Amino acid sequence: MTENADSATSDEKIFFYGKIQELPDDVIDTLSNDSVVFGCDDSTLKVLLVRHAEGDSAGEWALPGGWVRYNESVDDSAVRMLQHLTGVHDIYLEQLHVFSDVHRVPHRRIITTAYYALIRPDDHAIAAGFSTYDVRWVDIHDLPELIYDHADIIDMALHRLRHKVRHEPIGFNLLNKKFTLLQLQELYEAILDVKLDKPNFRRKMLKMNLLISSNEKQTGVSHRAAKLYEFDEAVYHELEQQGFNFEI
Amino acid sequence: MTENADSATSDEKIFFYGKIQELPDDVIDTLSNDSVVFGCDDSTLKVLLVRHAEGDSAGEWALPGGWVRYNESVDDSAVRMLQHLTGVHDIYLEQLHVFSDVHRVPHRRIITTAYYALIRPDDHAIAAGFSTYDVRWVDIHDLPELIYDHADIIDMALHRLRHKVRHEPIGFNLLNKKFTLLQLQELYEAILDVKLDKPNFRRKMLKMNLLISSNEKQTGVSHRAAKLYEFDEAVYHELEQQGFNFEI
DNA sequence: TTTATAATAGTTAAAAAGACTATAAGCTTG
DNA sequence: CAAGCTTATAGTCTTTTTAACTATTATAAA
């Protein structure tokens, strides 16, 4: 990052569509970022949306986004916005697509680079102090109407997530560092909208040797506690070098 | 497209890094596109590069690219540039990534959206009349030094191609509409840098039911002529709906 | 007609996927 | 504390797929 994200202290750092005329003077006025932030709660897939309380687009739901500054990359602008929004510093974040239709924003030419991010349950609490807008986790099956082309962006992000999650071990970024095999299975079921066989899923996962079996167990459940596992990034990268292909 | 690509008649429509100060006045001066154009010849994977004859970057190799106009999307700007460069109108083209490091271009802030394109052998001839620069197919294993971050862009494009070609039937866009099974196999071998077993590859391909067996055969070969096949896009999209997953 | 080259067909063993059944562990409630 | 419930975990068996081969056939060219 070009600059410390925490230097951002005011709400204006987050994309405020309703105040589009009052741009800070250190941003490129045609370029924005928008992020589809995924989270998984109660085995349902959710997206983080914001709603502005003032301005032209007050009351309308939108993806969280922000402007790109002259002295930062587009990626950095997205990281900065997300850190400010969620308070989390090691977010899984990937570029999704550039949306640049001439008429995607009325009366303005704004080209946005869309991202998708994966957030762990432990980090679902949203940083407080956002007086000028609502921030909310919304079930992916129950999205409200969104401004501009944001519905298209979510649509593409969901397709990308569904595809990528089957071919690369990125799903782990939607779980806490330590998780049970059933949590992992339910995550896949939520994302892919399928039902999986428990013993087979379990066997397949374990055979890949990508899970570190911790000695800890689940707590606070009213049944036999399952063992907690951790994703082994080091082993994955090693296997990847050797041509290993993660597949669900 | 916002505008007919053929309205472009001069070389200035293609990114001319050496003349960066002499921008047309209908472009967004911070935004460009750059494309990694892949082609497969003699079972080797190649990339289309340009070399400018005049200006600051004369003599240096670069990816073909262009500016984004106010009245077109970034995607359209890439299509326009590629059509002008290759003369081909139905190019397979996908967004790759936005490269936006503050210092990627010296003394200038230029944010580029990178694309990758796949060109069929039949279309490898480059449209004539590019007086101000060289255009050349270069073996992927034998790349010259490139300006700016273009080597990184090719690197990412190659990774993306290698990954995507294994999971989606896009490889066909690097072959002519009609091809033999051995050509297809050699294409995969060239892209993935592996050796495949002929009978097994053949069986696997045919079992997918994605190939229309034409009644035609190869001509001009000094051995038994192989049957020509065509990729069946319609069947693929149907199977895709049903959850079918292309895998090599 | 021989020869070279690649097309195409077939075989077999090992591995993986899929659909199950069975048992064990541990909380909860009467 | 025992019965019952829920989930963890182990194991079986069948079907498919993959992988490594061998064998045969067609065709242009010498």
TrEMBL record, chains A, B:
Gene3D superfamilies for the chain: Nucleoside Triphosphate Pyrophosphohydrolase, Winged helix-like DNA-binding domain superfamily/Winged helix DNA-binding domain
Keyword Hydrolase belongs to the record: yes
CDD domains from the UniProt entry: NUDIX_NadM_like
Pfam families to which the protein is assigned, alphabetical: NUDIX, WHD_NrtR
Organism, scientific name: Neiella litorisoli
One Gene Ontology MF term: hydrolase activity
Organism domain of life: Bacteria
Keywords, comma-separated and alphabetical: Hydrolase
PANTHER family listed in its UniProt record: ADP-RIBOSE PYROPHOSPHATASE, SLR1690 PROTEIN
InterPro entries: NUDIX_hydrolase-like_dom_sf, NUDIX_hydrolase_dom, WH-like_DNA-bd_sf, WH_DNA-bd_sf, WHD_NrtR
Domain Nudix hydrolase, first and last residues per copy: 30-160
Keyword Nucleotidyltransferase: no
Stated name of the protein: NUDIX hydrolase
